[in-house]
Amino acid sequence: MSGSSSSGRKSPMHSVFQSKKSISFTEKAKDSLKKGHAGANQSRMGVSRNLIIVPEMKMTEKVNVASTKIIQVLDKNGVDVTPRPLYCADLHAAKPNKLLSSQEGLLSSDILASYSMYQNTMNRSTMGQFTRSALGSSTVSKSSMSTTVSMAEDLEEPSYKHEKLASFTDMRVMRAAPETAITKEDLEKNIEILLTETDTLRFFDLPTVMISVESEEAEKVIHRNNKYETLCRNRAGNDLYVERMMQTFNGAPKNKDVQCDKIILEDQGVMATAWDLYDSYNALELALAAKPSAVDSSSKANALSKDRDHTLPGSATDKTSETSSLMDLESVILTKVHEDEEDHADTIMKSDKFLQDLFFMERVLMENIFQPKLAAYRQLPVLKEPEPGEPEDVLEGEKVEEVEEVKKEEEEEIEISTEQSTIPANLERLWSFSCDLTKGLNVSSLAWNKTNPDLLAVGYGHFGFKEQRRGLACCWSIKNPMWPERVYPSPYGVTAVDFSIGTPNLLAVGYYNGTIAIYNVQSSSNVPVLDSSESPQKHVGPVWQLQWIEQDRGSTGDDKREFLVSISADGRISKWVIRKGLDSHDLMRLKRTTISSNKKGDKEKKGEALISRQAPGMCFAFHPKDTNIYLVGTEEGHIHKCSCSYNEQYLETYRRHKGPVYKVTWNPFCPDTFLSCSADWGIMVWQQEHLQPFLSFYPTTHVVYDVAWSPKSSYIFAAANESRVEIWDLQMSTLDPLIVNIANPGIKFTTVLFAKHTDCLLVGDSDGQVAVYELRNMPSASDSGRGDTINALLGCKSNQPG
Amino acid sequence: MTEVEETLKRIQSHKGVIGTMVVNAEGIPIRTTLDNSTTVQYAGLLHQLTMKARSTIRDIDPQNDLTFLRIRSKKHEIMVAPDKEYLLIVIQNPCE
Predict the structure, then answer these.
(1) What would you report as the CA-atom Rg of chain B, rounded to the nearest whole angstrom?
(2) Is residue A208 part of a domain?
(3) Could you tell me which CATH number the domain at B2-92 has?
(4) A474-477 contact pairs (CB < 8 A, 24+)
(5) A670 class by beta-carbon count within 10 Å (0-12 exposed, 13-18 middle, 19+ buried)
(6) Choosing among B1, B3, B4, which should be mutated to test the A contact, i.e. which has the most A CBs within 10 A?
(7) Which residues, other chains included, contact B88 with Cβ-Cβ below 8 Å and sequence gap of 6+?
(8) Phi and psi at residue A652, in whole multiples of 5°?
(9) By the 8 A CB rule, do A706 and A688 touch?
(10) Set of chain A residues whose Cβ sits within 8 Å of the Cβ of B96
(11) Angle at A258 between CA A257 and CA A262, to 5 degrees
(12) Domain locations in chain B?
């Protein structure tokens, strides 16, 4: 054990050491700093030397001047890798050592002993160097002076250890109290101390940077290295390097209050909705698009900008697109109008959009009012309105009611289905198209629009010569049964109406004075688009029937051309073509026919002063399959079969009726059969090949004004005579009509028309009402619509004289 | 103009119609068949509802817009035709 290891390297230290016997830290303060360090170093080294055998490291002791040993560490190659001291005690510096001064009176041998003992029990790992040095010093317990010195050395460790020492000294102080006085013998006892090495603690690691000797920086680095070495050598006693402690002054903080006006905070929120973003981004685009679309819509509309733009009242999707374009148009219009407060209200009232909205509103109201009827018409399930219940137990009550109603409905339905065979077929009146305008007028013709199944054209005009009054042609929509969509008044009675097939917005109206007018229902103006009143070939008698015909021009390879065919009381059947105005061409002139040439021998009645050689034509019907062939019913009671190719001769003549034939109509399913009705109270079913009818009915003694085949069954047709409407079903009975609906007294039924896709019948009467009836409980036809079945019927009936 | 008046008159006289109102964007009635306080109340409430309905429709698809709004209640049905400038409100009692 290096008992004398506590001595430093330098001789003056040694001498100082020996001269002092008492513990006096202050005296040693100056000198011991340095030597303490060195001594500590040495003591440290001594410990390490003794304890650990590091195979690769040779530790040699440097013998100092007196009896001290200087440790030098050499590695296996003999290179001196002795770590240089990090800290060099300064001989001249006078460091106040608080700890040492405070401990003056406290330290005594017993304290030291206790301290050393305490050291032994210490946690070595935390104390590391310090521990070793302390322990090393404690082994020198033989001389109190050495311990004192070592103590002092230990105490004079670099500053970072002073704090630990402080704690130590405190602890030491505490511990010291209960301890008994330690005698000198105790001190000189041999105490076994075991020393172990702790893990190597790295406090600082500066990795070496290697630079090739040949590199550019090599010289600089070498120069720097040399400089550093000289510096280290010179550092020991150099004036340039002085260690001092400084105390910094912290600025004294001061609180300062400032008062300002209250900052008023307001919360503002905006919800960024998807449409808001869209609007902001597209605002410009909309403004630009408004102008061209305004131009488009105004050109399409063919009307003044303030007028209503109507498409055929039909699908709602068309409405919305029109609405949007109208809105743009409207916005463009509105921006041009100055808006005062008073003008604003007027602007709203005058705006197109407002008109549109009113239009919709009316439709919606109608829908509400007529909902069950319309639903029945459209063959939809009818909504039952829940009865407005009592305020108390409303919910439950209503639910119960509804459940009951549903049950009742089901029961009723079950009953109906079981009793279907017993309840006879009947006509149920749904509603009627009528309004103030049409009151008192006689319905003369009905026609559906070809593309919009909800649009109906009704012509009002009287039949008789003496009853002539003003006439009216109206377009009604199913969606508004209380007011017509279009009203075309005229001074003459309307006798025929028909919608065009190719251009469904054209309505042809025939008048009692023989003129034909064509209206465009898309526009809201009352002026006809075309008029035949100035045509040189206009009719001079009432136009009893109008029909638009599409004819294939197969020979020339053109598309289907459409023309209007009219028949009038002046005996002409004319074909009108729209080519820069109405152009007409006579298809046929109806000649009066004499009695059939059965009696060849008889003289023909010559010399009979005939007023006119023409026979007034009452009606015509083009063959559904072959548009070249048509039937004509005349006032004489004859039905002629004609062809467009011949305009002088009839192909066939069917004579049976005794009075004017008011209507001829082909069976839509069976191409050879047609139906006719006349003023001789008779309805007759004919077959094309036979000149005699095979069925004839004389149900009443009233004139039959109109007949029509049902679009659903080839056996069913409807007939309107003055007093009643009859539905005949040839499959059931050829003697009696299936359904008879009697008119109110004073009202004559004048026209009938079937609705195409529903089971409804429209009946016009002489009071200006068009009633819509639903055919209920019709016996389901076994083979409705099959042409061959009626042939079977014909076959078995052809024997009958008819 | 007369067409508007006619249609409005017809609507007012239809069966079951309790009241008809045309209100401008600020809630001031232009035409109404009900008394002022009721009109103002209806106008205010329906305006908010219309805004909400329109916002809903346009949130789902910004290119779409509200054209008509119908509210059916126990007692009657309120029909609103909204526009930027005005509100057309009709109250009908649909039970025959």
Answers:
(1) 14
(2) no
(3) 3.30.450.30
(4) A474/A437, A474/A438, A475/A507, A475/A521, A476/A433, A476/A770, A477/A313
(5) buried
(6) B4
(7) A354, A357, A358, A361, B20, B21, B22, B80, B81, B82
(8) -145, 160
(9) no
(10) 369, 385
(11) 130
(12) 2-92
Q: Which residue has the higher pLDDT, A344 or A307?
A: A344
Q: Is A326 exposed, middle or buried (0-12, 13-18, 19+ CB in 10 A)?
A: buried
CATH classification at residue A448: 2.130.10.10
Residue A692 tokens, joined: 């005699």
Range of the domain at A493: 426-592+612-779
Using a CB-CB cut-off of 8 Å, the residues of chain A touching B87 are none
Does any domain span residue A106? no
Residue A611 has φ and ψ, to the nearest 5°, of -65, -40
CB-based contact B3 A324, cutoff 8 Å: no
Test mutation, A340, A368, A482, chain B, max B CBs within 10 A: A368
Helix (H/G/I), strand (E/B), else coil: A261: coil
- In the three-class reduction of DSSP (H, G, I as helix; E, B as strand; rest coil), residue A361 is classed as helix
Q: How far apart are CA A22 and CA A152, in angstroms?
A: 12
Number of domains in chain A: 1
Q: What confidence tens digit (pLDDT) does each residue in A727-781 have?
A: 888 887 778 888 888 878 888 888 888 888 888 888 888 888 888 888 877 776 5
In this model, does residue B71 exceed pLDDT 90? yes
Distance from CA of A520 to the nearest CA of B (A): 19
- Tell me the sheet residues that pair with A578: A582
| Cβ within 8 Å of residue A433, ≥6 positions away | A456, A458, A476, A481, A484, A769, A770, A771, A772
A384-407 pLDDT tens trace: 655 543 333 334 434 444 444 444
What is the Cα–Cα distance from A795 to A793, expressed in whole angstroms? 5
**What is the model's pLDDT at position A610?**
53
Q: What tokens were used for A212? A: 């090739």
User: Cα–Cα distance between A311 and A303 in angstroms, integer?
Assistant: 12
More confident residue, A620 or A791: A620
Rounded to 5 degrees, what angle do the CA atoms A716, A722, A728 make? 15
Among residues A66, A21, A22, A26, the alpha carbon closest in space to that of A42 is found at A66
Q: Per mean pLDDT, which range of A29-38, A569-578, A612-621 is the poorest?
A: A29-38
What value does the mean pLDDT of chain B take? 88
Distance from C-alpha of A737 to C-alpha of A726, rounded to nearest angstrom: 6
The partner residues of A582 in beta bridges, in order of sequence, read A578
Q: Report pLDDT digits (tens) over A232-282.
A: 887 777 677 777 888 888 888 889 998 889 989 999 988 788 888 888 888
**Distance separating the N- and C-terminal Cα atoms of chain B:** 32
Residues of chain A contacting B15 with CB distance shorter than 8 Å: 369
Asked if residue A105 belongs to a domain, the reply is: no
Render the burial of A256-286: b for 16+ CB within 10 Å, e for the rest: eeeeeeeeeeeeeeeeeeebeeeeeeeeeee
User: What is the pLDDT at residue A412?
Assistant: 46
Rg value, chain A, Cα: 63
Alpha carbon distances (Å) from A168 to A59, A103, A110, A113, A176: 32, 11, 15, 14, 11
What is this structure's pTM? 0.57
